[in-house]
Amino acid sequence: MSSPSDHTAQRRLAAVLAADVVGYSDLMSRDEEGTLNRLRDLRRQVIEPRIQSHHGRLVKTIGDGFLIEFASPVDAVRCAVELQEAVAARPGKADAKPLQLRVGINLGDIVVEEDGDIFGDGVNVASRLQKMALPGGICLSGKVYDEVRGKLAYEFEDRGEHQFKNIGQAIRVFCLLEGMDTRQASGERRSARSHPEGPSIAVLPFVNISKDPEQEYFADGIVEDIIAALSRFRSFFVIARNSTFAYKGRTVAVQQIGRELGVRYVLEGSVRRSGPRIRITAQLVDANTGIHLWAEHYDGVVEDVFDLQDRITASVVGSIQPSIRTAEIERARRKRPENLDAYDLVMRALPYVWALEYEANKEAARLLDKALLLDPGYPLAIALAAWCRGQRIVYNWSKNLQEDKRETLRQAQAAAALAHDDPFILTVLGAALTITREYQRATSMLERALSLDPNSAWAWNRSGWLHNYQDDPEIAIQHFERSLRLSPFDPMAFNCEMGIGCAHFIAKRYDLAAQWQEKALMSKPRTAWIHRTLAPAYSLAGEADKARESVGELVKGYPGIRIADILQAMAFSKEVMSRFAEGLRQAGLPE
């Protein structure tokens, strides 16, 4: 996009609305003349009247899309909602797919040319948000949300921060009016935000008040273990660690956190470590009322850290549900490492394990290898090392596929032998068995993991992928949705979006397959492996240009990759793999 020249341009703050028609290329390929007539009628009868009634200015139309400028963010959002409602209510032909829009809205500085065209990051962010929206949905930036909240009676869903391509800073994204094709699933997600049956709790990141900022990982590790212990109580609903950590470093009212995560209780605290001495302070808060139910501090030495965690867990459980017996708390304990330095290394490795990126995977493996040199019998370290090796297989990073498959399964089984009732470790074994395509055993492991810890977002995620590999896309989508409910702000949520996208591909809903994978790519733009399944989704949805561009991005991340390499790494059924192969072939990837 060329920049306007200085002598003809002016700057101003504006709310920018970008919208496009879903599946435009597919609609045109089926009925070019009919589609053009429908778009002309849509613009004349729906779009232009509503722009005028909400004091907007139609800047331009671009094929299947259009760009609108508003002076007021409130007007922009009202106009977007009315547009979506009007489009959804329009009668359609029995033999034609209904028209749907995706809308993005941003508030930012724009540059206005003499002819009225607009440019700048204010426009670019709106365009990125539009691509992220589901069919029939609206995504808006945090700046727009800040201006409209409390002024409009709509239900917004916080989707966390996203890093968009060619945009310097992360953008906080809010969505409303989930799309028509996903209304049932999104309705389930929204209703689930009300308090579940039984006690529900979120454990926030504990504040590190040690003088050494390097102790941050130690405070995070304590929270990790408390969440794991609480998750084992089947009567509890516990938000996953990766979502509660979205609040790290932010000052947010407990009542707001309760509403956003859909929980009744919040546990918060701090950690001070000085040499061998450690003090953990914790307080349990009723998120409905903001009332503190109890507050306590726990003093000891570093070697006592696991006992201190157990005391905090017992206090939480005793305050919320006193009928839970001490014996059940005992069963919630993991097998502890013999060497605390190994524990430190595992805590440092965790963010790299979940990044699902090549360089991060190598760093995680390095830290875990060091941990296992110090404590060869540490089940969590063994399981995480197995999963890192499994990632190499799944994401086409392996230099020796057969050896990595054997070693992944060996390490996962070794960890499970040491900790046969640890749900995380059973989930790793289930994932390893999925990689080696032993689906019956994988199902058994994942079912056992979920019976032990129904709050494991990752176990629900792996179960979703297992159902995908077994050609059961509708159940897969339910399990990915469950994972997202347990961890709505999880940095790994994009992996669930990928899973939902692949489920739609299996069901031959290629437009939706591409849209969900686009959402995942928005969250993780540097993750080249996404293009292995996004490119064929574009191809079979009739988006040939996007498919070729997607393959281009894939080859940048994987020079020399071929269709055969991708098929060897993935575990879908032969019929689904043949469709992936055909889509990649159409997009120009060599055999």
Automatic annotation (TrEMBL):
The Guanylate cyclase domain, residue ranges: 15-130
Coiled-coil annotated spans: none
TPR repeats: 423-456, 457-490
Keyword Thylakoid in annotation: no
Keywords: TPR repeat
InterPro entries in alphabetical order: A/G_cyclase, Adenylyl/Guanylyl_Cyclase_3/4, Nucleotide_cyclase, TPR-like_helical_dom_sf, TPR_rpt
UniProt protein name: Guanylate cyclase domain-containing protein
Species the sequence originates in: Microvirga splendida
Lineage: Bacteria, Pseudomonadati, Pseudomonadota, Alphaproteobacteria, Hyphomicrobiales
